[in-house]
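Appendix B. Extra example for self-study. Work through it before the problem class; the solution is given directly after the inputs so you can check yourself.
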Amino acid sequence: MSEPHYPGAAAPERSRFFVSDGVRLRLDEWGDPSAPPLVLLHGAFDHGRGFDLLAPLLAARFHALSLTSRGHGDSEWNDFYAWQNDVADVVNLLRSLPRPAHLVGHSRGGGQATDAALWAPECVRRLVNVDGFGPPPEGFAPPGMSVDRRPAPERFRDYLDARRKAGARGWRPYPSLEDLVERRREQNPRLSREWLRYFLHHGAREVEGGWVWKTDPAFARGFGPWRPEWIGPGWQRLRVPMLAVVGTEPDSWRIPEAVAAERLAFVPELARAAVPGAGHFVHMERPRETADLLLGFLEP
Amino acid sequence: MIELRHGRVSLALHPLREASGATLLCLHAVGGSAQDFRQLAGRWPGRVFALDFAGHGDSGRLRGGAYHPELLAGDADAALARIGPALLVGAGIGAYVALLLAGGRPDLVPGALLLPGAGFAGGGPAPDAASDTISRWEDLDPPLPGCDPAVRRLERDIRPPEYAAEFARAARSLLLAQGDFAQPPWWQAVRAGPTASPAPGEPAAALARLAALAADVS
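Solution. Structure tokens for the complete assembly:
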């Protein structure tokens, strides 16, 4: 299948693997390598090529580097996944750069960027968190699914049952890329089919019998005692300014404003912005407006 | 040695004693291995198996290094899938893992004996907002002999007392070691629950009490 095109999307100028703690991670780059570095972090089940619209608009001023996290896109699969490993990968990348970088993360990547700025403040200039303020207190319920409210030991038994099959687990192939596009549209109805065709072409691979996601099926199937109230209080130690970005349109992947405001109140140096007409995938839905916002915040 | 699979990792399960009677599965501390239970196995009336957790002993290393108690619980559950219902004895991190399994698989685990050891305390009851909790992830102590250096992360995971208490309530019977050792909040929550009772200080007596649990409930 030939490489799809999408208006405004530009493939990376350079791609390589960055090895973090022994794990090969895909790193896509746009712009002059001697320009100020800007690191881009994608959300869960996405991949680094989701910045093909935004990164080219930033590349005139910055050296943009998009890191694909473990178990996603063309990065290596792991035997198990933990939040801190992903944050460590971001810190390792930042430390490999010749000077401090701006950090921009979307959704789960926004949370990673925030924790990386806490972990290695000496490596970070400014932080942009695009709708990545953690799950709502009751957890995310994607369209068609409900929140699991059973006691932890009961949910844990399901986790153990799933681990017993973890080695054999693989994605069921969808007959065509078009079927993957429709599946993703159910989760993110605001994203156009044309964009998803482009985005998923890089987030899926063709196998015998159809197309499968590149994301490791074992990702996000861990278990632990994590509590939503743990998000926020640690942010009072942030030493870099944060721009918190949301879209203005209703989206089931955005947490209630009151919850976001409560968590963001801990950030010592906070700016907030809303992009008109965008849902959760702000940089994919409104790349030009997002780029203008970022350029204004990062280089005022 | 029996080779097990948990996900994409190969695990070593060691049969330490063959006899008729209730089965015992031994879960070691951080930096330990199945061999730590050789002496104890001789005091058990039935079959004894001891597992090398991922990153330890003869078991495989975890690609990516994301060691967590819940991952180790999956290791131990792979052993239960092979050997069937068993009493558990766990030391250190193995005690916490035994608690998780006793609460998650009460149908397979009639009781567990929980002992102190490396990895017993964990990383506290909640993240510490005032300190650099997140960067402690890379600030690991020196590697332990024969282990993946990343297994030291098993001394850092957060263990909220209310989480431990939920598993304790779901368990059938827990025998808790007594003695002069630091008692983390998760342990105090388990101790306060209805399924916990003090284990005799003498190892042979503690094992006899554990073996009696199998008879009580089966």
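Self-check: The first strand of chain A starts at residue 14 and ends at 20. If your reasoning did not lead you there, revisit section 3.
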